[in-house]
Write a structure and sequence with these properties.
Blueprint lengths: L2 E2 L4 E3 L4 E3 L2 E5 L8 E9 L2 E8 L4 E3 L7 E6 L5 E6 L6 E6 L5 E3 L7 E6 L5 E9 L1 E8 L6 E2 L7 E6 L5 E6 L7 E6 L6 E2 L7 E6 L5 E6 L2 E6 L6 E2 L1 E2 L7 E3 L2
Antiparallel strand pairs: 1-24, 2-25, 3-4, 4-5, 5-6, 6-7, 8-9, 9-10, 10-11, 12-13, 13-14, 14-15, 16-17, 17-18, 18-19, 20-21, 21-22, 22-23
């Protein structure tokens, strides 16, 4: 049986099965009692939904395309997400009732994995418009996209530090497997934090910005924000992924 050391992060260990559907949760909402998540319960396609703590749900996006990777705005009024509704993955934002959907990117390459900055002014995202997966940042209205990583390797899963000064991400720039890196919010000062023989993925910051949790070979780890103090949190044969810290 897999052991789990005490910690203050909520674990979404794989996709939950509900009525034969696949549901995956987004990082915690800034408004208590609301969770944004992705489900294929409607017509077998992936939509953005909201759930209250009593289990009642509300459909947010209503489109025949796949909508994925929801990210809350800091004020809790909008959700950014990726969608292939334009026959190519782009970034969109929506009000919580789904009545106002705005397309933020319109490139022929993949744009996805949005992450709203803590001050609400920027959205980091992943784009293949320069060939490989790169981390970009843009204004919340979609203007001013800028490549932060500018690397031939694949850079994915941007995660803002709570103060908005840094972005953690996963990259293959130093080998075939993903490792965790951190950079300043303007793309400078890139620093490699992990050196593992297996992929390290999906970094997430603690609320105080002092620690980063991440996946590694189907287990969960945490470390200080400078990469020191590495600690293994789970072990065993089961799959533990997608850590999110409790606010």
């Amino acid at each position: 049986m897999k052991s789990l050391l005490p910690l203050t992060i909520s674990l979404f260990a794989g996709a939950a099965a509900l009525a034969g559907c696949r549901d995956t949760a987004a990082p915690f909402a800034p408004i208590p009692a609301r969770i944004a998540f992705v489900s294929d319960r409607r017509l077998g396609q992936r939509d953005i939904w909201l759930m209250n703590t009593d289990g009642s749900v509300q459909l947010v996006t209503n489109h025949l395309a796949d909508d994925d990777w929801p990210s809350w705005s800091p004020d809790g009024t909008h959700i950014a997400f990726e969608s292939d509704r334009s026959l190519n993955y782009d970034i969109y934002s929506t009000t919580l009732d789904g009545s106002v959907v705005v397309r933020l990117t319109a490139d022929t390459a993949f744009d996805g994995q949005p992450a709203w900055s803590p001050d609400g002014a920027k959205i980091a995202f992943v784009s293949q418009r320069d060939g490989s997966d790169q981390i970009y940042v843009m204004n919340v209205d979609g203007t001013g996209p800028a490549n932060l990583t500018n690397n031939a390797a694949n850079d994915l899963a941007p995660a803002w530090s709570p103060d908005g000064s840094k972005i953690a991400f996963q990259s293959t720039r130093d080998g075939s497997d993903f490792a965790i890196y951190v950079m300043n919010a303007n793309g400078s000062g890139v620093m490699k934090l992990t050196n593992s023989a297996v992929p390290d993925e999906l970094p997430t910051w603690s609320p105080d910005g002092q620690y980063i949790a991440f996946d590694s070979d189907a287990d969960l780890y945490m470390m200080k924000a400078d990469g020191t103090g590495l600690r293994r949190l789970t072990s065993g044969n089961e799959t533990d992924v997608m850590a999110h810290w409790q606010p």
